Amino acid sequence: MACRIRKWEMSDARDLAEALSNTKVQDNLRDGLPYPYTEQDGKDFISDMLAADENETFAFAVTADSKAIGSIGVFRQQNIHRRTAELGYYIAEGYWGRGLMTEAVTQVCRHVFENSDIIRIYAEPFAYNAASCRVLEKAGFKYEGTLRDNAVKNGKVIDMKMYSLLKVER
After folding, report:
1. Sheet of 57-64: strands edge to edge?
2. Is 75 a residue whose pLDDT tops 80?
3. Domain limits for position 139
């Protein structure tokens, strides 16, 4: 099974709601997402992503089986970090463990490096999320270190890991 990234379409809202109305998915994401996640929540998110400055926000649907199965985005930072961007992503639970997110990460990084002045993309997965760390490693990201007691998720203080990919390394 292959995946590809593409611009969001309003018709993706139902697939988005299905993927994000899963606590196993949300447990690996930052806080702030509604639960359950509704189709209207998906439409609002898609509208925001389609309206975003394309040189600041690189947001895509991850697709397979003719549907949106996840989300991936690269978000430019500010000030002295203006040529650095943060990567975030998730995939519906039914598609875990198939290598699809690694392919999506590879595709989005290639797109950002080829179509912007970004020189560094980083990601900060929760340290307990071994699958996400493995996705980054398989996509060529380098482990930079552990950010100790860096977040509070589900009432627990947790570590995060720092990974990065440089334009000159790809």
Report:
1. 4-6, 57-64, 67-76, 84-91, 120-123, 156-166, 142-153
2. yes
3. 4-169
